[in-house]
Design brief:
2 helices; mainly alpha; single chain
Length: about 140
């Protein structure tokens, strides 16, 4: 009896490879998002630390420098927040692409499973026909 051979196996392997590549891209963007979150948290911590401490001596120049630095930190935080939002949007795009690649692979796998079921039915049918043929031949020999 012939072995099962899925004629679209190369397409299935290709789609599985595409899914792995999409998963890697998704993981990279996810890592970038985590790094942006860490940078944003560090800036927020720095701002909080600076706001919690006051200069030991009250000097107008020190207060002006402190307020200027707080403004710079706020600008950096806003810029980092925009970068984070861009990365989050890319992450959603990568997630959608990953899900699409996964659906495509799963569709090919379900087609393969259906083809294998059809193959098993053909094998079973062929075996049954062979057994029927043997039984008919034996019956014919006994009758003669």
């Amino acid at each position: 009896m012939r072995r099962f051979r899925y004629r679209l196996e190369t397409v299935l392997r290709h789609r599985a490879t595409l899914e792995r590549l999409r998963l890697q891209a998704f993981a990279e963007v996810q890592q970038q998002l985590a790094e942006a979150d860490r940078r944003l948290a560090a800036l927020a911590d720095e701002r909080s630390r600076l706001q919690a401490t006051w200069p030991r001596r009250i000097d107008l120049a020190d207060i002006e420098r402190r307020e200027f630095y707080l403004g710079v930190l706020a600008q950096r935080e806003a810029r980092e927040q925009r970068v984070r939002e861009g990365i989050a949007a890319r992450l959603e795009e990568e997630r959608a692409a990953l899900l699409e690649a996964r659906r495509a692979r799963q569709a090919m796998e379900s087609l393969k499973a259906k083809a294998y079921e059809d193959y098993l039915l053909d094998v079973q049918r062929s075996e049954q026909n062979l057994l029927d043929e043997i039984a008919t031949t034996r019956h014919g020999l006994r009758a003669a």
